[in-house]
Amino acid sequence: MPKFTINGVEIEAKEGQTVLKAALEHGIYIPHLCYHPYLKVAGNCRMCLVEIEKMPKLQIACATEAREGMVVLTMSEKVIKARKAVLEFLLINHPLDCPVCDQCGECKLQDYCFQYGQETSRFQEEKRSYPKIAVGDNIVRDMNRCIHCTRCIRFLRDVAGQEEFTLYERGGKTQVGPYRENSLQTPFSLNLADVCPVGALTSRHFRFQARSWLMQKVRTLCAACSRGCNVYAWISKGKVLRLTPAVNESVNMSWMCDFGHRSIQPSNDGQPGLIPLSGGRQVELTESLGEVASKLSHYIHAGDGSRVGVIASTCLTNEDLYMLRKLAREVLGTSLIAWIPGTQDEAPFGPLDEPLDTWFVRKDKTPNARGAQNILGSTEHAESVESVLQAAEQGELKALLVFGEDLAARYDAGRIKQIVPKLDLFLVVDARMTRSGQWAHVFIPDAVWLEKDATFTNEVGRVQRLRPVVDRELPIRAAFGTIQEIVKLVGVNWYFASPAEVMEEIAVKVPGYQEISYPLLDETGLLVEMK
Amino acid sequence: MTERVLTARFQTPDSHRLSTYQADGGYQAAKKALSMKPGEIIDLVKASGLRGRGGAGFPAGLKWSFVPKDSDKPKYLCINADEGEPGTFKDRYLMELDPHAVIEGAMIAAYAFCANHAYIYVRGEFKLPMMRLEAALEEAREANLIGRNILGSGYDLEMWVHPGAGAYVCGEETALIESNEGHRGMPRLKPPFPAVVGLFGGPTVVNNVETLAYVPHIVNRGAEWFGSLGPEKNGGTKLYGVSGHVKKPGLYELPMGTPLNEIVFGVCGGMRNDRKLKAVIPGGSSTPVLTADEIKVNMDFDSLAKAGSMLGSGAVIVMDEGTCMVRVAMRLAKFYDHESCGQCTPCREGVPWIRKILVRIETGRGCRQDPKLLLELCDNIQGNTVCPLGDACAMPIRALVTKFRDEFDAHIEKKQCPIGGFQNPWPSIKIQACKVS
Question: What do you get for the CA distance between the two ends of chain A, in Å?
């Protein structure tokens, strides 16, 4: 473990660590542009030049290994002069169009110029300029703003595995772009907008939507597949405008796929006026809850609790699933509880392409299949759904409660339609209006994932926190709240004040979850202990 | 006249053929070297003090000794024949007229640090040298001087010619390696140095053609003989390519340390049309210029370094009194602007800026603060770049601005070139002969 001094402070670096990494870890900031913690070092921006004693030239901190006894200066006169020089060089051909640039407010170049740059320009010559081009469906490239840090090239080559960007031309005319014009095959193209430290690569979907400082960001999870990437959801005026990856080294490093990036669409233009229905009639939430509760309590009193079937979706959170299990086992006493394994052809948010990449995107496009397996049990679930449906067909079921799933889409719609009249109660709880929702005797809206405060268990068993991002101010609550409300009307009081308390009970009741509690989940989540 | 070593066979007819070369004692050094231990050759070359002729003057034997002996990766020798420095024209003649000397030298060098693969990276425009090298390699292969079990020694060496694609920066060793691997020719970050991680990830030595051509002579005649040819630590003879306003420009082989004024006024017959000498660039376009008063300097690595310049590749560019120094600077900046690879910020942005300022000054649109700005830009570029190309632009420009400041000021004050003849505005630059009318 080499110890070295930086600005007079002795710090200990890890073996083989670079000066920049060690400094950043110890809270000493060295400005850098081309360095990205999860990309290979390129060392071309020359922004992180530092003075190291006994070395005649300034050295780049991002590529210099920290060695025992090194004396590093990051704020010496020489360093500040070089830093100023690099910024001046970067700015001479930069359009300085910050007021209309999407990166404004989160632009490293802007920040550094503000901090270390000079106020006036000595450059009297004409700036080079290029037209903007759309690169693929998701990215706009503005070469004028580019600082040639090659983060995009390195991301595509080393991380996404598809070398689609390159440098072309030479010297001052160097451009960064795709080999073929207007094409990007990679399913990770929106990461380019995230890795670009300036406004050269911006998202076509987010362009001109909002200024970064006028948005709030909330750390939550992406629900577009079972990988459970950590994301920041950026909100402006109650709308989620974009998702950007948040760092979690155990899950997604700092990347996410285009599908995930774009999975926010439904919460924006999904049906904002989703209203409870009873027999096709719009009703108050309390009325619909009351109707369900009265029917359920009727079955229980008649000893028909076991004649209620429950089908859950893997889009539900752990808390929702657990409440459902509790409802089925403790209140109704039914064993007919089934979950539908992660959809592969039908995504929660629209049609899907083939599985994109074994490296990242998962086939299973629902976020919580593992949670459902852990909480509801990994019985032969497909058969289990089948047996629930068969029971309903044979008229053995009084009621069918479906949570978060459109049976009409997943199974033969005609079959479902025939089942409905045989039931006394067909309840659908879903975040969107579906066909089976329209057929339901009672339809109760569920919150979408961006509104839920809950947890998902990702494919490898990592329990991670989903945080409420938007609040639609409608009489909509997460499924677990709906269930608790129904149960309360049935006459059983569970007293779960928050999802955290549900998780406390999950920790006791569900094997593997004993270590899990909200305060401990933090940002990285916790792995379920499997026996 | 001292002994000619490298150019001794240049006048022989068919000097590029194996038979001619062998008749003159060719490949005897290789035979001798193969009977020695690799370490002994390194020691011999180290003792001779042979310094790299590509420009930096790094001791060749020392470079070889940096190659790790226990590496499990294949080792490579790259022969840097990407002679791109403006003013330089020495390696091409070695390859054209004495290709076997280069191959023999390369073979001894490869044997010295146990490499089994060698690439001759030839500048793309050098068609004839490439053809000659290819033919020579073919001859050598047939004579079992290259290939498997060379001359029954058990040593294998394969050698290929790799054409460049016209980039000056590929003369920089790591850019050469990148280009040789088939990538865009951009210098790598150092460390790791090529001796540790080089071509295809293996330990690699990159040597200049002239350096390698000297190796057989050192093996044949010993370290002391080599040292005796020049001043201390600057042994051997050197190929000087003299161009510009002299009566007899050309390639001259002279002992290291020959005074520059002797080269200009003695060997090359003095200034053309007997004009006054104004300035000399002593070692290729990237070396700082020397004024007429400074040319008593000895042309070797250390003396020139002391004089504030560099021996570089030994390309002497002589300029007479009719030369506009602003235009010289502009021409150099144009070259470096065109050749900058665009990888790192100071060079990519700074060099075109310097060029634009110089065009402005030359066309009479300069401002009073421009010379100062130029010097500051040179300071900001030099030492802050990935490779020495930025330095190669900054050093001569700085020297030109400091040493000929009055000429720059005159341009700015008179709003035109006092010498005249340059009217074309940016960007359609066409350099015309700069002469007093």
Answer: 37
Q: Around Cβ A304, how many Cβ atoms within 10 Å?
A: 18
Residues 6+ apart with CB under 8 A from B255: B2, B229, B230, B236, B237, B238
pLDDT digits (tens, 9 = 90+) for A474-519: 556 788 889 999 999 999 888 888 899 999 999 999 989 999 999 9
User: What mean pLDDT comes out for the span B289-315?
Assistant: 94
Nearest by CB to residue B345, choosing from A41, A46, A63, is A46
Q: How many CB atoms lie within 10 A of CB B68?
A: 12
Residue A356 confidence class, pLDDT cut points 50, 70, 90 = very low
Q: How confident is the model at residue B424, as a pLDDT? A: 54
CA distance B389 to B84: 12
Check A86 against B345: CB less than 8 A apart.
yes
Whether residues A82 and B189 touch (CB distance < 8 A) is answered with: no
φ/ψ of B88, rounded to 5, equals -95, 130
Task: Decide if B122 touches A, using CB distance below 8 A.
Answer: no
Residues B89-129 pLDDT 10s: 999 999 999 999 999 999 999 999 999 999 999 999 999 99
pLDDT tens column, B183-237: 999 999 998 999 999 999 999 999 999 999 999 999 999 999 999 998 988 989 9
- Nearest alpha carbon to residue A517 among A508, A527, A504: A504
Where is B323: in which H helix or E strand? none
pTM of the model: 0.91
- How many CB atoms are located within 10 Å of the residue B159 CB? 23
Residues of A in contact with B337 (CB under 8 A): 171-172
Give the closest residue to B256 by CA, choosing from B278, B229, B292: B229
Closest-CA distance, A61 to chain B, in angstroms, reads: 12
Inter-chain CB proximity A125 and B353 less than 8 Å = yes
- Write the pLDDT tens digit of every residue in B132-149: 999 999 999 999 999 999
Closest to B394 measured CA to CA, from B404, B406, B380, B407? B380
Spacing of C-alpha B136 from chain mean position:
23
Torsional class of B287: left (φ above 0), alpha (ψ -120 to 50), beta (otherwise): beta
Nearest to A58 among B186, B344, B383 (CB): B383
At residue A94, the pLDDT reads 95
Which of A44, A45, A122 would you mutate first to test chain B, the one with the most B CBs within 10 A? A44
Residue in A with minimal Cα distance to B339: A171
The CA distance from A511 to A322, in Å, is 12
pLDDT of the residue at A33: 96
pLDDT for B435 equals: 33
Adjacency order of strands within the sheet including A462-466? A454-457, A462-466, A526-527
Lowest mean pLDDT among A52-66, A340-354, B128-142: A340-354
DSSP track, B57-76? --BHHHHHHTS-TT-SSPPE
CB contact under 8 A, B342 and A166: no
**Confidence at residue B145, expressed as pLDDT on a 0 to 100 scale:** 95
How much is the mean pLDDT over chain A? 88
Question: Strand ranges (DSSP E) for B11-166?
Answer: 76-81, 117-122, 158-163
Quickly list H helices, B143-289. 173-180, 209-221, 223-228, 260-261
Nearest CA to B209 out of B63, B317, B300, B93 is that of B93
Q: Which residues in chain A are contacts of B165 at CB distance < 8 A?
A: none
Instruction: Please name the residue of chain A whose CA is at the shortest distance from the CA of residue B386.
Output: A44
Classify each residue of A335-362 as buried b or exposed e, where b means 16 or more C-beta atoms within 10 Å of its C-beta.
Answer: ebbbbbbbbeeebbbeebeeebeeebbb
Mark yes or no for CB contact A147/B345 under 8 Å. Answer: yes
Which H or E run includes A313? strand A308-313
Nearest chain B residue to A59, by CA: B384
> Which amino acid is residue B44, in one-letter code?
L
